[in-house]
Each structure stands twice: as structure tokens, then as C-alpha cells.
Design goal:
The complex is a heterodimer of chains A (350) and B (104). Chain A has 350 residues and is mainly α. Chain A has 18 helices and no strands. Chain A has one domain (12-327). Chain B has a single domain, classed as Rieske [2Fe-2S] iron-sulphur domain (Rieske Iron-sulfur Protein). Classes of the chains: A mainly alpha (350), B mainly beta (104). The complex binds FE2/S2 (inorganic) cluster.
Chain lengths: 350, 104
């Protein structure tokens, strides 16, 4: 029986992962001919410009109507849509533009990345490095800083984050730490010294913006300014958590095959727009060079080598929620996938 | 002591593409730019040693397949996070349609 998992990046499991060769390991990849791979990796601006125009346009329309109709049922409905576009779609834009694959033109990735980081309250520098680590050591305990559901899972913590109850205060705590010219001990393990000044200055600017929002609310005697900037990260967070949970929850940890620890889920077109096709999650982890608009084609190319996708978001929840409930008493339990090839498993099957 | 080592025929590399090359246990990446000029660099990314020949060539940039780090393959210069160390480059010559690189 394995001792209690230590998810901190500076603890025993971090050292264990390095000692076992689980960190910076060679991961399984489905073979794809180079010619086809180049087609799949090909960069274009068109799909991301179209989607970004739609995203920003809808933000302006729903946000504008929400303000105009304030305070009424109609304004709340408009803010419900605005919140998902702000507090959830920003998660996917942060992610894709962070990889630099959404747009062909570099500055477009940079602009949308920084805007989305502000909305989702993730420091652009810290999260760029944290996500690199997530790709190097995906769901490796003690190495991956982006594991949402640990074993045993803190279910109330996860549930509360559907409206950002833990994530948002934590984001402000980190902003305060960064604004004072420091990183957290864990962040310091993956953010190089030369990059840190950017984080400190970003936090100072962001805190000024949020302070201005609070002052505007107080002066106007209305919560409306915060409904537009800041609060949508809470009331609109549910969609990004819902889709984010499907990525790895209930599956194996400490393996070096994304087919065992990641999940592809077929989703409705609206969720795919908000989530920018990250439902093809095994494919994304195996080939992070492939832009969001080519992930469906990549899925067609390699699906015979992957476990069957979940048929819907509900089907994914039906798989991982019972697994997480069981993990509360039995942290060794996980949903086992049958795959062919060179998968490496260190944990034991539940 | 450096020496010229034959890599491949010029037709073996598409324009705006890269191929891997191994010599005496060392890995190299050989590029053909969009205008048909050839370049060579170390074959492994300076970030976490991914094989660059699995990456994507765009104009004069090679993008690493692991974390999308970018280098200018003409100079080896890293183009931002997560790249912090530049890539080593090697002289290339074409002789009788054969691409050769100069290795220490
Ligand atoms: S290994 Fe090349 S960017 Fe990380």
C-alpha cells in the first residue's frame, strides 16, 4: 500500500517521481507519418480570428445588454452567458494561446493570451511555466502543478470551485505575494529567476485594476462594475471546471502514457466552442503542436490506437464521479484503460 | 579537430522542413528553409531535450514538439519561454547535391 500521496512540488513524492524516472520521461505517442503530421501541425489564423471575433463580439453584446438591462431577470440571463464567455472561455484561450498554436501570427497569440490570463486570474508567466511542467509530467504526483483532483479527492473543494470559491481568493493571495516581489515556494521550483520580474509587475497592474473596480462599485453604490470585471470569474467558472474535470479525473496517475491518464470526450458544439476543442485531450497531450482546429482531424487519424472516448460530458461524469467517490476511502483505485504499445504503469490497478 | 560529414541528398529534405541526423551518438537537425538554403543545429531542444526534427518549421523558426519552444534555426537563438539556452548551429555545405555539416 502506497503512503498518502504528497502533491506538493517539494515533497517526498516529487523526489520519488524523479527517482523512478517518471519525471521528464519518454511518453508514448501513436506513430503518424511525418507528411500527415505536418499537415496536422499546420498553422492558420483564420479559425482563431473567426472564433475570437465571435467570442469578443458576444462578450460585448451580452455584457452590454447585461449593463443596459440592469437590474432585471433579463440582465441576469445576459450576465449568465457573459460569465461563461469570461470565466470559462478564457480558460481555453489562455491554454491554446499559451501553446502558441491558436493563431499563426505570434503577436495575436500573445495579445489573447494576456487578455485571457487576466480574465481567468492566472499570471501569464507563472502559468506558462506551470503548463510546461504539466505537459512534461502529466499527472505525475509531486511534479504536475495542475492536478485538479488529488487522491483522495477533496470533493467539496472541487464543487466550490464551480463558482471559484477557492480559486479566486487563492488567485488574489498569489497576486498579493507576487506584487510584493516574491513567488510561492512551489512556483519558485519551475519559474526561472530571469522571468520573475514580469510576474511581479503584472500582479501590481492587475491589483490596481481590481482596486479601481472596487472603488467604482463603492462610489456608484452598485455591484455592476464587478459584474463586468472580476466576478464573472466566479459566476461563469462552472463550464471550465466541468470540462476541466473530464480531462484526467478518475484515471491513472504516475504513468507515462496519455491514453491511461487523459480522457477524450465527445461534446456539443457550444461547449467545444467555449472549450476550443480541448475535449480531444488525449490527442492534445500526445501532440501539443496540433492547433485546436485540427484536433478533430487528429482524433480521426489516431482514434484506433486510443481508448474509446466518452460519448458525452455526462458519460464522462458517470465514469469519473463514482471513481472519485470510491477514491475517498481507497486512494489506490482508478479507472483502468486497456491500451496497446509501451505504456508504463507504476501504480496498481484498483 | 572538425570534419565535414555527409548527411543526405538535397532532395531528401522538403523546403520549410527538418530531418534528424545522428553521427557518433550525437543528434543533429538539418533544415531546408523556404528559399532552399540549408542549416544545421543540435538535434535536441535545449529545454528538455525533445527531438526537434519532430517539430514544425515555419519560415526560419523551428518549433519544438514538446512545449512549443521556438528557435531561429539560422542562428540558434531561442525565442522566449520556455527556451532559455540557445541552440548550437553548425556550418553546412552543398557539394554535388549532397548536404554536409561540419562537426567538431
Ligand atoms: S523540450 Fe523543447 S520546448 Fe520544452
Amino acid at each position: 500500500m502506497r503512503p498518502k500521496r504528497d502533491y506538493s512540488l517539494i515533497g517526498d513524492d516529487s523526489r520519488r517521481a524523479v527517482a523512478l524516472g517518471l519525471s521528464q520521461a519518454d511518453w508514448y505517442r501513436t506513430p503518424i507519418p511525418r507528411k500527415r503530421m505536418k499537415e496536422l501541425m499546420h498553422r492558420r489564423n483564420g479559425p482563431a480570428i473567426r472564433d475570437t471575433a465571435l467570442w469578443l463580439g458576444l462578450l460585448v453584446i451580452f455584457g452590454g445588454l447585461g449593463v443596459y438591462l440592469w437590474f432585471s431577470v433579463w440582465s441576469l440571463l445576459c450576465f449568465a452567458a457573459y460569465g461563461v464567455l469570461y470565466g470559462s472561455a478564457s480558460d481555453a484561450r489562455w491554454h491554446e494561446c499559451g501553446h502558441g498554436t491558436a493563431f499563426k501570427t505570434r503577436w495575436m497569440n500573445t495579445v489573447i493570451y494576456n487578455l485571457a490570463c487576466f480574465m481567468i486570474m492566472r499570471d501569464p508567466t507563472v502559468w506558462r511555466w506551470s503548463h510546461a511542467r504539466h505537459h512534461t509530467d502529466t499527472v505525475i504526483v509531486g511534479r504536475d502543478p495542475e492536478i485538479i483532483a488529488m487522491r483522495p479527492p477533496k470533493l467539496w473543494h472541487i464543487a466550490a470551485n464551480f463558482i471559484g470559491l477557492f480559486d479566486v481568493p487563492l488567485a488574489f493571495k498569489h497576486m498579493a505575494i507576487h506584487a510584493s516581489g516574491r513567488l510561492t515556494v512551489e512556483e519558485a521550483t519551475f519559474v526561472p529567476g530571469t522571468e520573475r520580474a514580469k510576474t511581479y509587475w503584472t500582479a501590481r497592474v492587475w491589483l490596481l485594476i481590481y482596486a479601481a473596480v472596487v472603488v467604482t462599485c463603492v462610489v456608484s453604490g452598485s455591484v455592476l462594475p464587478a459584474m463586468v470585471i472580476g466576478l464573472p470569474r466566479m459566476y461563469g467558472a462552472w463550464h471550465h471546471l466541468m470540462t476541466g474535470l473530464t480531462q484526467h479525473c478518475g484515471l491513472a496517475d504516475d504513468v507515462t502514457d496519455h491514453r491511461l491518464n487523459s480522457r477524450t470526450v465527445y461534446m456539443n458544439p457550444i461547449s467545444r466552442f467555449v472549450y476550443w476543442n480541448m475535449n480531444y485531450h488525449v490527442e492534445h497531450h500526445m501532440f501539443p503542436m496540433v492547433p485546436f482546429h485540427a484536433l478533430p482531424a487528429l482524433h480521426e487519424e489516431i482514434k484506433d490506437d486510443l481508448p474509446a472516448p466518452a460519448a458525452s460530458i455526462a458519460a464522462a461524469f458517470r465514469e469519473f464521479v463514482p471513481a472519485m467517490l470510491r477514491q475517498r476511502a481507497d486512494p489506490e483505485y482508478y479507472v483502468h484503460r486497456e491500451v496497446f504499445g509501451t505504456a508504463t504503469a507504476v501504480t496498481t490497478s484498483g | 579537430m572538425s570534419a565535414w560529414v555527409e548527411v543526405c541528398a538535397v532532395d531528401d529534405i522538403d523546403r520549410e522542413d527538418v530531418v534528424p541526423f545522428e553521427h557518433l551518438g550525437c543528434q543533429y537537425a538539418i533544415y531546408c528553409s523556404p528559399d532552399g538554403t540549408f542549416y544545421a543545429t543540435d538535434g535536441l531542444c535545449t529545454h528538455e531535450r525533445a527531438v526537434l526534427a519532430d517539430g514544425l518549421v515555419m519560415d526560419h523558426i523551428i518549433e519544438c514538439p514538446k512545449h512549443n519552444g521556438r528557435f531561429d534555426y539560422r542562428t540558434g537563438e531561442g525565442k522566449g519561454a520556455p527556451i532559455r539556452v540557445n541552440l548550437r548551429t553548425y556550418p553546412v555545405k552543398i557539394d554535388q547535391h549532397i548536404v554536409s555539416i561540419e562537426i567538431d
